[in-house]
Amino acid sequence: MSQNNGLLLEVKNLRTSFLTDYGKTRAVDDVSFAIPAKGTLGLVGESGCGKSVAALSIMRLIPEPPGKIESGEILFKGENLTVATERQMRKIRGSRIAMIFQEPMTSLNPVFTIGDQIAESLVIHKNISRRAAWDNAVSMLEKVNIPDAGSRARQYPHQMSGGMRQRAMIAMALACEPDLIIADEPTTALDVTVQAQILQLMEELRRTQGASFLIISHNFGVIAKIADSVAVMYAGMIVESAPAREFFSNPVHPYTRGLMKAMPRLDDSGAEASLTPIPGNVPDPAHYPSGCRFHPRCTLAVEECKIQIPELLDMPGTGGHQVRCPIILNQMR
Predict the structure, then answer these.
(1) If phi over 0 gives left and psi between -120 and 50 gives alpha, with beta otherwise, what is residue 16?
(2) What is the DSSP track for 151-163?
């Protein structure tokens, strides 16, 4: 099926919930975003805001039960994945949509070599011989700049460093040349030098292979480096979204501003500036506050904020900048 207006992925009003001992919890609540072909969307927010659940929903990897995609559409090249069968999804996962999971040590199988794990997806999706798949696996390790790839392919995950394992995960994700790669915290626990190398590698792969990326992170530095557009999630909802340049030059939602103030940074003298943390914690999905879910932590909150969940609306005169905060929108009018 053809793409819709050049969009590779379009998520519309997605709701994903889990049944727990405390009742139903909605981890993703009315989330919408889109990624064009060869585009990169950065999805940011604190831990527990629903970013990873949104990604797993796209891959249809939410365990049912206790999880369930309640409503919404996930359109991939115009095909609605929410109604696809498990057999259809197995053909899509790894082949057309791939995912780089948050922690490679727990995502890689410890009893198989790195080369075997990359070759397996090629045998399944490309229907080639084991020998050809192994050769392609070694070639992929070379593409992600792993030295002595032939020997490394015969190693097990525990024999590689964190940076090497992350590169191997990227090689596995790219092996079948997917159209969309979902990267969940791809640089977590890596030192800054390796982080920069991984981001440069992903940018090169987007340019040379034409892949699109969904990058999930709590690190604005990573997002600023690679994303074309940015969406901020809080308590299961998107509270702000914009093209990357507009987003970083004019962040408006109180939560977004709070996240940026909480980032380590240098002052004018080059010394490390003090951090300004956001008070309070992300709410429990089983007990979201009424009204705006950020209002218990927000310095701008008024009585109106406690009553009704605000809509995600376009900011006037910004060209694609949306915010879920009537106070900010009223100030701009």
Answers:
(1) beta
(2) HHTTS-GGGS-HH
Residue 179 pLDDT > 70 = yes
Query: Beta partners for 233?
Result: 238
pLDDT digits (tens, 9 = 90+) for 87-102: 999 999 988 999 988 7
Encode pLDDT of 181-214 as tens digits. Answer: 999 887 766 677 777 877 887 788 788 878 899 9
Q: pLDDT tens digit string along 239-255? A: 999 999 999 999 999 99
Domains of the chain: 7-96+178-332 (3.40.50.300), 106-177 (no CATH)
Phi and psi angles of residue 301, each rounded to the nearest 5 degrees, phi first: -60, 140
What does the block give as tokens for 301? 């909150």
> What strands lie across the sheet with 229-234, from one edge to the other?
97-100, 180-184, 212-217, 40-44, 229-234, 237-243, 322-323, 313-314
| Cα–Cα nearest to 146, from 183, 112, 120, 171 | 171
Q: How far is CA 116 from the centre of its chain?
A: 27
40-44/229-234 β-pairing: parallel
CB 240 within 8 A of CB 324: yes
Angle at 25 between CA 188 and CA 189, to 5 degrees: 5
Please identify which residue in the block is written with the tokens 């070639």. Answer: 139
User: Rounded distance, CA 28 to CA 16, Å?
Assistant: 5
Structure tokens that stand for 55 in this block: 């990604």
